[in-house]
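// run 5 | inverse folding | seed 20
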């Protein structure tokens, strides 16, 4: 299994918590699309052929691109790469930038899954974090997407927002679930250095819920989602039965993926397991692709020990855990043999379950994931 990630680095406005590579200045949008089309050609020539089972167009705000640009990009991907029949093709949408015409064009372009960045159903909270939309716009966009024929829709929500209460977060969970999306991603707000939110928190101008309150929101949200039929299959991801995001599962299985666009990351077997990332400098990206060069900033060979640890780190994010068979097929060694001490110590703490098929963190282990991983790092 392999996936393609494609990055669109433009947003109508920067949200105050965002450290993704994206720009509110859209003056280079057309030049960027031309550069991306060049990179698609270059990457198809340079990297070994794969059958891609998923495509994920993320950002930034991909739904800001004119529909015809998205159609050209999807056409180029299909012309230059082998995209599997029935591939999952996701596009991230901001509720403030969709309309019926665009949604119909996305369907024509072969996009079959949408991911709406809602974050909260509380309009005051949305304003306070700089979102460009309100809840009513989201609901309208969601219904338009259904009418356009999208049956597979994710909604992103956040907890731990400034001034957010548990009741408020649960209200968001309930209102979103009532729309019956196939998938809900619930992330804890991370205050990233260098963002306006970071500055406001440091200056004491913005107060965040404390760690206990955030933990309680997460636990209450998880229980509410389970009661509504959304099973947790990864630390932050919930889905109706059979609707898990295949693109993200490929990341957590440490599978191959090609990243295209500004600052995109990739991982692939190229004479050994390699990871690389494109430049995050927009002008350098445009200039390099125009010269016929791939815009790679750094490529590194991942040694076997590191690759093994990556498999554990990513696999244990999923509630089904790390597949022992897949690990053994990749490394010629059972995961229990590779990490005997870590597995034993975590089992004794009640953080790890070992079955014939998998190594799996318990609910307590998932909550302590970073500490649990330290055992594997040291084993
Ligand atoms: S819409 Fe998303 S990518 Fe754009 S600024 Fe907000 S959080 Fe960042």
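// decoded
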């Amino acid at each position: 299994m392999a996936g393609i990630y494609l990055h669109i680095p433009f947003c109508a406005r920067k949200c105050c918590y965002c450290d993704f590579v994206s720009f509110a200045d859209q003056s280079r949008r057309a030049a960027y699309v031309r550069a991306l089309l060049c990179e698609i050609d270059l990457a198809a020539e340079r990297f070994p052929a794969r059958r891609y089972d998923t495509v994920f167009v993320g950002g930034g705000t991909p739904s800001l691109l004119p529909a015809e640009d998205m159609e050209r990009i999807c056409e180029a991907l299909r012309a230059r790469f082998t995209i599997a029949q029935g591939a999952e093709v996701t596009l991230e949408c901001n509720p403030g930038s969709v309309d019926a015409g665009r949604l119909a064009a996305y369907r024509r372009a072969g996009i079959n899954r949408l991911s709406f960045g809602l974050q909260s159903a509380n309009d005051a909270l949305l304003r306070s974090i700089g979102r460009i939309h309100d809840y009513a716009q989201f609901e309208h966009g969601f219904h338009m997407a259904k009418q356009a024929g999208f049956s597979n829709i994710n909604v992103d929500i956040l907890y731990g927002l400034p001034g957010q209460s548990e009741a408020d977060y649960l209200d968001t969970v309930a209102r979103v679930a009532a729309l019956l999306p196939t998938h809900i991603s619930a992330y804890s707000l991370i205050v990233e250095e260098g963002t306006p939110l970071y500055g406001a928190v440091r200056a004491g101008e913005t107060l965040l819920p404390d760690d206990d309150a955030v933990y309680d929101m997460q636990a209450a949200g998880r229980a509410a989602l389970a009661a509504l039929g959304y099973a947790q299959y990864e630390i932050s991801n919930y889905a109706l039965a059979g609707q898990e995001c295949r693109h993200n599962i490929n990341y957590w299985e440490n599978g191959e993926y090609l990243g295209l666009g500004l600052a995109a990351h990739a991982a692939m077997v190229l004479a050994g397991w390699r990871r690389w990332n494109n430049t995050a400098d927009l002008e350098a990206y445009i200039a390099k692709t125009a010269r016929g060069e791939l815009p790679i900033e750094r490529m590194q060979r991942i040694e076997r020990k590191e690759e093994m640890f990556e498999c554990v780190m990513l696999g244990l994010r999923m509630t089904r855990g790390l597949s022992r068979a897949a690990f053994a097929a990749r490394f010629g060694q059972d995961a229990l043999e590779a990490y005997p001490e870590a597995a034993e110590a975590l089992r004794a703490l009640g953080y790890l379950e070992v079955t014939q098929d998998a190594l799996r963190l318990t609910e307590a282990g998932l909550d302590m994931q970073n500490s649990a991983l330290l055992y594997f790092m040291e084993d």
